[in-house]
Input
Amino acid sequence: MAEKAGMAPTSMEELKSLILDSNTTLIKKMDEHSKKADKRMGVLADKIAQNDRVIKMLEVDVRSWNRFIPQRKRKPSFVVYLLLAFSYLLILILFGIVLYRVANLPAEVTKMHKQLQETKDFFPCGSRTREWEYFDGGCYYFGIEAVTWDTAKAHCEERSSKLVVINEEAKQNFIESQTRGERYWIGLSDKNVEGEWKWIDGTDYRTTFKKWTRGEPNDAGEREDCAQIHAVGEWNDVGCNSKSFYVCEKPLPS
Output
């Protein structure tokens, strides 16, 4: 057999040496395997420790949730019932207020109508047109700019009115009291036919009130075709292109 292997020991010493070398090799391999096993065991130990930490964290979370779960299962406290009762009370109060306002709505409407009527009594020509003066069912505007007769007529029309027509003594007295000695155009002229005086609204001139100054109208210089109230409150014919203040009139707003 020693001849077939080619490696058979020739003496006891060689055999002993061979056995020692073999043992040394085995020990080294066992050491290497042991180190690898230790390393693997260390990795496993780290993983086990990590898993332990995760388990502890989960246990903490579970305990935290457990603290809230009993609160959710608790019955509503007295404070909750008190707040609900207070809310219902507020709803009832608001409902009562609404019912009261609805029941008194006709009275409120009547009150507002009365206030509106009082406003009309103070400003019968309209609260937004306080520059208009009221007299005997009509509204009168006294222009503060001296203009020609045609311009005065246009200004009145822009205000949905016309130059004043004085067809009775009461209106004459009112206009006279408001003009304060100044000259104001009125809605009377004979521009179309000399001597045929006509009111701007078609009122019959011949059969209605007149208050010319003595000697007027005289068409001085054949150029006086428009009438005005002059300083003493009587009427006078003057040139239509001269400039005077003017009086507009319109019916009382409905």
